[in-house]
Structure prediction request, 988 residues.
Amino acid sequence: MLLLIAWDSAIGQEYFQQEVNYTINVALDDRKHTLDGFIRMAYINHSPDVLYEVHMHHWPNAYSNVETPLARQLVKHGKFLFQFSGPENTGSIRNIQYKVNGVDAQTDDTDTPADYTKLILPEALRPGDTAIIETPFFVSLPDAEISRLGHSGQAYYITQWYPKPAVYDSRGWHAMSYLNQGEFYANFGYFEVNITLPSNYVVMATGELQNEDELEWLTEKARSTESWQTTHKNMSFPPSAQTTKTLTYKQGNIHDFAWFADKRYRVAKGDVVLPHSGRTVTAWAAFTDNEAKLWQSSIDYLTRAVYNYSLWNGDYPYNHVTAVDGVISAGAGMEYPMITVIGESGNAVDLETVIMHEVGHNWFYGVLASNERRFPWMDEGMNTANEMRYMEKHHPHLNIFGSRHNSWLMRWLQLDRYRLRDQNYFLYAFNARRNLDQAPCLHSEDFTPLNYGAMVYAKAALAFEYLRAYTGDDAYDAAMQAYFDHWKFKHPYPEDVWPYVQQASGDDAQWVKDLICTTKKSDYKIKYLKRTDSGFDLTIKAKGIEGPVTCTALNDKGEVLDQAWVPPFGRDTTVQISLRNFHRLVLDHDRRTTDINRKNNSIRSSGILRKMEPLRFQWLAGMEDPSRTTLYYTPTLGYNTTDGLMAGLLLHNVSPLQKMFEFRVMPMFGFASNEFTGTAAIQHNLRIQSSRWIENLRTEMSAATFGTGGAGLGGSFTRYELASQLDIRRNPLSRNLSHHVHYAVTHVSETFGIRPSDELLVTTTSNNLYGFLAYELRNRLTIRPYHLMAAFDLHEDFNRVWLEWNGKFVMNRHKRSLFLRFFGGTFLHHDTNMPRYNFRMDGINGAQDFRYSHVFPGRFENNGLLSQQFVGGHGNFKIPTANGQTNSWMVAANAKMQSPFKFLPLGIYADVGFSDPQGLPNAPGILANAGIYLWLIPEIVEVYFPVIWSEDIRREIETRGLNYSQLIRFMINFNEINPFKAIRRIPG
Ligand SMILES: [Zn+2]
Prediction:
């Protein structure tokens, strides 16, 4: 009985949705950039619950100060405009005085950010009852470059601008702050909006315009655009008319209302007949002279998008579709019901892509109004799947960069074989191969900025396009139209989509769910091919996702003989092939799945090494090509003072998509030393599917040998190293804080030559084994990032431990920064007085780099330009000094401040340090120096010019007889600009 009751209440929770009908009167003041309005909302409680409060959005307050969730998200995404803006750029909504059913009502702002509040209902709102909520409101518009609401001069982008009830659904209230990412969740209802503004503004808005004379005026403008020839751009604002007009818009079945006003707008107009109902929809476009030439085709893009989306998903339910040209910083375009705003495009393909994508949101967001904050894939992912389909239908020849033109470089790098649709695969695979992917079904705030695109848009779209390829268009479209019909003007959740996905696939569609809800990867693999009486038996394996895959037979020209889908299978399955004469079998030949490793997808019918793809050599680098084993090569040149000019060849297998094993070898020949030199490395990247603790483990074995210490002296070093980096998993990946463990074992063999006389060369060789162990804490905050390193250096003759903290403080919108650094280190023991093992106040130079971890073209030079290179570390003094070096303890602090100006790569620095005075004759006191510096790449390539220095250093300079040019030093940290390392350091 109890069980029955529990069951009853669980299924008794029937779908409901609230309804809000709005009347808004608003006037624009285009001198003060403000809106003065009054809003009346009929809030109808269709829920089974009695409501005592209504959560209200006050969106414009997201722009009210630099502590709002929007401000914090902008900073997190590296956008500092708002953070460093003056008060004239901020925005707010004020003068709110709620009345509910005519009675004054209070709000409760405790524990809510500035941009939402709880409206306390004076009287409880019972199921089925209506509350009339009214208030005046006054909006100061922010600078439109901050996000999406605002003004740019007298161009107005009026979005998310009025007081608005949050959604209350079966999961409760969904009050949320305005954010740039994961914007919408709103109640359906009926809108009547009356906008008053100077009469020479062109206004485009959600809803149907009721003013006949205004419609006639717009249509007349559209006619003049047809005959107008673009001559020169005029982007200045004409003066505002003295008279005003009031425009009325009405619309039902929408959940938001946006409007755009600009006196400069040209207008275009067209129409489209819908494929299913035959109804006609009017298309409007409004644009400035900025990209007018491109926008003259915008009506074609609008109507084509409406037609295709209607055909595939169900007819467009409204009477107009509109696109306006706008300066928005947040993304290329933005959707609102019936109207979209499009940023600067640059070319026709991009403009068409953005317009069609944003128009598509009328289906996936507008009509199917899912909760984008919580499940952004339901609108962005499903919409991007339609985008991929649209672009392939209308632009099948576009290459991966969205261009018709394959440059010589693209052909050379064999990038021309990839089509536009492969873009999404590479976006997904770039992070998935590094274990930095995230499940598309996460909350919008849990994604890293890159993954918001790579997972929510790209991977989710790939999943739906994969499904369509498998089911065929008819079954897929029937399912999507059924979803649309059932859920239109409602709020579907993921569990409401799955039945339609299953309808399309004809099975449980677990593989689609896995693609959306997990980070499981797909890897289809050919195990073996056996000849049988009737043909062949092909055994294939699915690792991870158990989905369907195509099997294609090719002849020796690479032409398709036959192709069929293997339905979803678990682990191993055997496919009988009745074809007898074919050259090769390939899985996923059309690249329709999300197969993360396509290198194991092919087998030849005969021969040896049947699974191995033909070997290909390619210059420099390229995208991975599953049909070939590609080795990249490039001639290289190098230089150091001993080997002189070096020439050689770099051979590697590294491409943007990380492989499990990656190698690079670079044999070289030094023309001064007549010696072979070079480097070699092999790296193993552990592919961890689902470890809770480990994000990545990279292990590298490397070797290097080069000459050192003067031509003709036979000096050289050979170094072997085994090194690992372990990244502890961040959960979620968007966390700023990350923990890393590094270790390295390095064997260095060094040969030094001395020439006591012209005839005699004495060489000595020493071998050393070094250990290195470090813990690193990184905080990736964009405005105040820091990292902390605690490290041990181990050797049979000494052990030392050191701690280094580096922080960066962004000071202005140009990201000019203050850098602070603290260092402390001490020896635990030492049995040697080798000065190279000391902590040095002036950082690590060539001689100090005993593990040979860095590149020093003039490693042991005592004078000349190359002797003035160092790589920071220890005391990190920029002036050269032997003062303060110690095999005891040392502390130091460093500061650098960049000039605040955008185009001036100049700054000032200061260093101060102190080391153990014990046992040192004439022990220096506190050492210091300061000066100015220039940078090419901040923190990586910099040049330092000392200006002042402390007394001990002054005496040393005098004693050594150094002139000023010898005090100038530079940092080049070659390790940081190594492209092989840089590409893997791109944040997930
Ligand atoms: Zn979108």
User: Anything to note?
Assistant: Residues 357, 361, 380, 383 surround zinc ion (CB under 6 Å).
